[in-house]
Amino acid sequence: MPYRVVMRVGVYIDGFNLYYGLRGICGRGAAGWRWLDLRALSQILLDGPGRGWPGAHPARIVYCTARVSGAANESGQRDQDTYLRALASHGAYDHLALGTYVSRLATAPLATADRRNRPVLTHPGWPLMVRDSEGADSPRATFMASVARREEKGSDVNVASHLLLDVLRGHVDAAIVISNDSDLAFPVREARKLIPVGTVNPTRSYRAGALAGSPADGVGGHWWHQVTADQAAAAQLPAAVGRLVRPHGW
Fold it and tell me: What is the pTM of this model?
């Protein structure tokens, strides 16, 4: 029997980028996408047409996320904890890299989105006008708003760090990066010099320009893909993983 080379693929997942991306693709109120089996999704991505990676399998899956704070979202924290325990019990990842989840107050000009989701500043106009201290209209003034923001910190750094460490240590022969975060441009570009990289956009937005490139860059064999709702639906964990049951509405 001829010897078959097995390509070890590392999969590096930006958890919040994937979650909010799929929420936009599948629908916030829709069920059937949150209970995601990361290993099954990785295999679906590898099996897609045009990959050109014979003998490839997801040998190392690194899931980068952060724990939701129960102070502001008790049910969300409970559901996430169930999901993380189900992933571990099912063997759906090899390493969990946790960032932090912080709440802060942000102040910024009031704006609306244009057709490409870019901010357009809101200015006064009748019937709501702003006047200066002398009573003159100020139609070019801006409205300022303070809002509470909850932000995840560290996932992009964890994705970049684990990707480059695994590549430089020779632990993987190829990589899949699941994120549309342009901050990953440098580590992805450097990894492409040493191994083939599949870059997966988990959002419905256009691929970040900084993550673009040529299949022939570096060592070659690179590809790009945008996750679909059907792929998410096909990569779900069993409804019950041991005693852990998929949360209602998931």
Answer: 0.84
